[in-house]
Specification:
This protein is mainly alpha-helical. Helices cover about 50% and strands about 5% of the residues. The chain has helices spanning about 15-25, 35-50, 60-65, 70-80, 85-95, 100-105, 110-120; strands spanning about 10-15, 55-60.
């Protein structure tokens, strides 16, 4: 939608329903660092989105960073969204608290390493600034 590329790379959905679904998902994450990252994400979305409107996810800037063709990556993303329940279950299982190993009991982990699995979900990176331009952009 934003760049002139032949592939369809944007997804759209109802904004309010999507934010509610995200809030439900984030509420299920049992992690010591979730609260500020969750609040930041939901605060950003609630402050910038019309809950009665649509949310457009223009993926070209992210997909262009990958090695696979845009069309293939966009199709994979759409498939993941269509199977969101399975994606959510797998993510929650991966984030479930695990018993600490010997080194984790001896050494206190850094805040960065504690937050790492949450940041992999995109939490902590909310901004109004667009900083990327695909290689073929004018």
């Amino acid at each position: 939608m934003i760049w002139t590329v032949p592939e369809h790379t944007a997804l759209t959905g109802r904004c309010g329903a999507g934010i509610d679904r995200l809030q439900q998902f984030l509420a299920c994450i049992d992690h010591p660092a979730i609260a500020p990252l969750r609040d930041e994400a939901l605060g950003f979305l609630n402050g910038h989105a019309d809950r009665n409107g649509h949310f457009v996810l223009e993926c070209a800037e992210i997909l262009d960073m990958g090695d696979a063709p845009l069309a293939e990556q966009a199709a994979n993303l759409l498939q993941g969204v269509q199977n969101i329940d399975a994606e959510i279950e797998a993510t929650l299982a991966r984030l479930a608290p695990k018993k600490k190993n010997c080194w984790e009991r001896v050494f206190t982990p850094s805040q960065e390493s504690i937050e790492a699995p949450l940041r992999e979900l995109g939490l902590g990176y909310w901004s109004d600034t667009l900083y990327y331009s695909p290689n073929d952009a004018p």
